[in-house]
Specification:
With 399 residues, the chain is an alpha/beta fold. It has helices at residues 3-18, 21-26, 33-46, 49-57, 73-84, 97-101, 122-125, 143-150, 171-182, 201-207, 224-231, 255-264, 280-290, 308-318, 347-363; strands at 63-69, 104-116, 135-139, 158-162, 189-193, 214-216, 241-243, 270-272, 298-300, 326-330, 336-338, 343-345, 370-374, 389-397. The strands form two sheets. A twelve-stranded mixed sheet has the order 1-14-2-3-4-5-6-7-8-9-10-13, covered by helices on one side. A two-stranded antiparallel sheet has the order 11-12.
Length: 399
């Protein structure tokens, strides 16, 4: 009998047991260990909360990997059933006989956690071992709630914060936030959107690890000083991904950004500068530095007021970058009746633009490079999807 047949038989046996919940719960102490995992999976997918609660209490293995969950209401009910079955240890100063008889306890360990509005997750967070979390996303939380969680996390690889209300900032809370960031020695990706950092970026870069390789700062109200600081930072020599979208950092001078491009030229792979008020003069000035970014894979600079001659000049310079495969460019201003309002786009003119660029790519033998026009403002705020969370339950056996 091969392995696939054995697995199928175990699954069939598990489904058969679920047809009689009382008998199954009564027989849990006698069920073979090999049947626990398929039985748990079947019970989880079928929403058999009573069986799940009973199984967690007698789980025979060190780890119970639930897999990926979403915040759908049905999954909350199932997760609560699992949590209800946890053998929670009493307080350390308790002298009750639970302590004497307890053989261990389960705790919930989450690797990737996404929180949309903190208030709806507090009941579950109290059961998590926050030290296990590696990737954290928080949307619409105040800074003190962020600090409270970060203070308990030491193994984060990536941190994403979105829509942290400005009114929750103050000097003390921001300093506490920076102290928490300074403890994240493994942090590689940092994303802050709708997070006011005007003239404050130097404080943040001072505490994050120098090996940070992905930095997303859309809608952060960055100043020219902030871009200058970034170009002089130790992180600039490691960055692979950089997003500065929706910051009007090019409205006056371009030299700070030009210096930044020169600093990241040997590592940068993805550059996103949508809606930064990049003009023809700015883009023309930074083209030489941009053409030295030999590792660049993706360039996106949509929703900027660029004319067709400068767009064609950029294409001519970038075709020498053999790793560059995707360019998302703004619709040239002549295709609109009024660019500033993005109203009345002339589709015929846009088609002519696309045909000219395609012909230039073909002439340069760069048919592998795709240029895509984008004619509407970029929605920087991430699309609200059902978050995926990975949960692990570990059983720690007392000595």
């Amino acid at each position: 009998m091969d392995q696939k047949t054995t697995v199928t038989l175990l699954e069939l046996a598990a489904k058969s047991l679920l047809n009689n919940e009382p008998a199954t719960i009564h027989a849990l102490d006698e069920i073979p260990r090999d049947l626990f995992v398929p039985l748990f999976n079947a019970a989880f997918l079928g929403g058999h909360k009573t069986i799940l609660k009973a199984m967690v209490k007698v789980w025979p293995f060190r780890c119970l990997h639930i897999g990926s969950l979403t915040t759908r209401e049905s999954y909350y009910d199932i997760l609560e059933a699992v949590i209800d079955g946890l053998q929670i240890l009493p307080a350390q100063n308790s002298s009750s006989c639970k302590i004497q008889q307890n053989v261990g306890s389960l705790h919930v360990c989450c690797r990737d956690l996404q929180i949309d509005r903190m208030s709806g997750h507090k009941s579950i967070l109290q059961f998590l071992d926050l030290g296990c979390i590696e990737n954290l996303e928080m949307d619409q939380a105040n800074l003190s709630e962020v600090v409270t969680l970060l203070a308990q996390m030491i193994h984060l690889n990536s941190l994403t914060l979105c829509n942290i209300p400005f009114k929750t900032y103050n000097r003390r809370k921001f300093r506490s936030f920076l102290l928490c960031l300074g403890r994240l020695d493994h942090l590689q990706e940092l994303s802050l959107s709708f997070f006011c950092l005007t003239d404050q970026l130097h404080k943040l870069l001072r505490v994050v690890p120098p090996q940070l390789d992905s930095l997303y700062l859309p809608h952060c109200q960055l100043s020219h000083r902030d871009v200058t600081v970034l170009s002089q930072s130790s992180q600039a020599t490691h960055l692979r991904v950089l997003s500065l979208s929706n910051n009007h950092i090019f409205s006056e001078v371009y030299e700070p950004f030009q210096a930044l491009l020169e600093k990241v030229s040997s590592t940068l792979q993805h550059l996103v500068i949508n809606n930064c008020m990049i003009t023809d003069s700015t883009l023309s000035a930074v083209i030489p530095a941009l053409s030295h970014c030999t590792q660049l894979h993706v360039l996106s600079f949509a929703f900027n007021p660029i004319t067709m001659p400068v767009l064609k000049s950029l294409l001519q310079h970038l075709t020498s970058l053999m790793k560059l495969k995707y360019v998302i460019y703004p619709v040239p201003v002549h295709c609109y009746e009024e660019w500033i309002f993005h109203d009345r786009l002339d589709r015929q003119k846009l088609a002519e633009v696309q045909a000219q660029l395609e012909a230039m790519l073909h002439g340069a033998q760069r048919n592998d490079m795709k240029w895509v026009a984008f004619d509407k403002p970029y929605a920087t705020k991430r699309k609200q999807t059902m978050p995926t969370t990975y949960w692990y339950l570990h059983q720690h056996i007392a000595a």
